[in-house]
Specification:
Shape: elongated
Largest sheet: 5 strands, antiparallel
CATH superfamily of the largest domain: SH3 Domains
Keywords: Signal
Pfam families: SH3_4 (PF06347)
Radius of gyration: 17 Å
Organism: Cereibacter ovatus
Structural class: mainly beta
CATH architecture of the largest domain: Roll
Distance between the termini: 30 Å
Protein name: SH3-like domain-containing protein
CATH class of the largest domain: Mainly Beta
Number of helices: 2
Number of domains: 2
InterPro entries: DUF1058
Length: about 180
């Protein structure tokens, strides 16, 4: 049997407890329209000229997600895991609207985000294979909730690193990479 990369239940409990859901996430409609591409249509961010939506990771062990783009807006969530993958869905000046794997989020200052790619294991248990093939040997298992570093992705597989271990995982076991995305 391979070694287990264990997700800390305490950390997951902290993440769940740190989020407080607000019913109304409204930002002025005219401002909102200027910040994101039309629904269901990928576009480019008006500030960075990078693709929207796109994935990033949280640089710090704590990041406030606000109701709107600015310090005067109320904090709705607090992300508490460094390296956590987040999806950027809009931009406004120095602010990025992000969401986590559950769809929770808000506006985060860009200085809290990194372009380093990570992903979260969303399968109950993900097998880390030696090669990108289901028949290849499994050396390690990763539990649901483990944050991993994306090293490379091909059509159906991603090579990941976590806890000093590396291996290939089927893409569907991860959140933080699009199904058709290739990373080299």
């Amino acid at each position: 049997m391979g070694r287990m990369i264990a997700a800390l239940a305490v950390v997951l409990a902290l993440v769940a407890g740190a989020k407080t859901q607000a019913q109304d996430m409204a930002v002025e409609p005219s401002v909102e329209a200027a910040m994101a591409p039309p629904p269901g249509m990928p576009g480019m961010g008006p500030v960075t000229n990078l693709p929207l939506p796109r994935y990033v990771s949280l640089k710090t062990s704590e990041g406030n997600a606000r109701r709107g783009p600015g310090l005067t807006h109320r904090i709705d969530w607090v992300f508490t895991r460094a390296g956590m993958p987040l999806r950027v869905t809009a931009e406004y000046e120095h602010w990025r609207r992000v969401e986590d794997f559950e769809g929770a989020g808000g506006w985060v200052h860009y200085s809290l985000l990194s372009g380093v790619r990570s992903a979260m294991v969303v399968a109950e248990m993900a097998d880390l294979h030696e090669d990108p093939a289901s028949g290849s040997p499994v050396n390690v298992h990763a539990e649901r909730g483990v944050i991993v570093r994306l090293l490379q992705c091909i059509t159906d597989w991603c090579r990941i690193g976590a806890g000093g271990e590396r291996g290939w995982v089927i893409k569907t076991a991860l959140w933080g990479v699009d199904p058709d995305e290739v990373l080299e």
